[in-house]
Design a protein that fits this description.
Elements: H1 2-22, H2 32-50, H3 56-79, H4 81-88, E1 92-96, E2 99-100, H5 102-108, H6 112-121, E3 130-135, E4 141-145, H7 154-157, E5 168-172, E6 175-176, H8 178-183, H9 188-198, E7 205-210, E8 216-220
Length: about 230
């Protein structure tokens, strides 16, 4: 039991350090410690499940150890900046005032092609229009344009627009979602009137959404092709 605890502790620390050394780009959406926990728990859970000769307790203890370490690390990261920087790293400036920070790009192993791909995905074609591009600790690149290159908002244009309302899915696959129907303040009679206005039956509806402001969207089922 003690051996299982020590092995889990050592593996956890080794994997955290390994992921940190791999660089931020390899981490993706997760922080390094979270990525390690995901790998360890998957592997630790698989071993006792496959080998029935291993006592269940010996399989549970390493998993609980890893989870406990992650919780402790989360608390320490919240309280101490140095711990947070050690395990999570710092945001890295890749572009500042329209100029590439080549040294930081080499350190983080982000190529110009990868940066340009990210910019294109966000509708940005000219690096010179970028005020800041920052590689965040989770691996994402945040981009801030110069104010003069930002798209004009409705406020900037002096245009009055309606408030955004979240549509509720009322019908999905021909089935009524009663909880959503009630959440919108509607009832079956209201739904029947809407379907009658569209000239379709309930079982023919692929999806029907509605906002509390009365905006509806309806898609009718299409016959499946053989």
């Amino acid at each position: 039991m003690f051996v299982s605890f020590i092995r889990a502790l050592v593996l956890y620390l080794i994997l955290v350090v390994s992921v940190r050394l791999m660089g931020k780009r390899q981490v993706g959406e997760l922080e390094p410690s979270e990525f390690v926990v995901s790998i360890l728990i998957a592997n630790l859970a698989a071993v006792p499940m496959q080998d029935i000769g291993i006592p269940l307790l010996s399989g549970v203890i390493p998993i609980l150890t890893v989870l406990s370490l992650e919780l402790i690390l989360a608390v320490l990261s919240l309280r101490f900046i140095r711990v947070r920087r050690l395990f999570c790293g710092n945001p890295t400036m890749l572009v500042e005032d329209g100029v590439l920070n080549q040294e930081n790009m080499r350190k983080t192993r982000v190529t110009v092609d990868e940066l340009q791909q990210h910019l294109r995905e966000n509708g940005i074609l000219d690096i010179a229009t970028v005020k800041y591009a920052i590689l965040e600790t989770g691996g994402k690149i945040s981009t801030i344009l110069y104010p003069k290159h930002e798209p004009a908002s409705a406020m900037d244009a002096g245009v009055k627009v309606d408030d955004v309302q979240l549509p509720l899915t009322i019908v999905s696959g021909g089935r009524v979602l009663r909880s959503h129907l009630a959440a919108g303040g509607w009832d079956q009679a209201w739904l029947d009137r809407q379907l009658k206005a569209y000239g379709c039956r309930l079982e023919d509806v692929f999806v029907l959404t509605a906002t509390k402001g009365g905006k509806l969207y309806l898609a009718v089922k299409k016959e499946a092709r053989p």
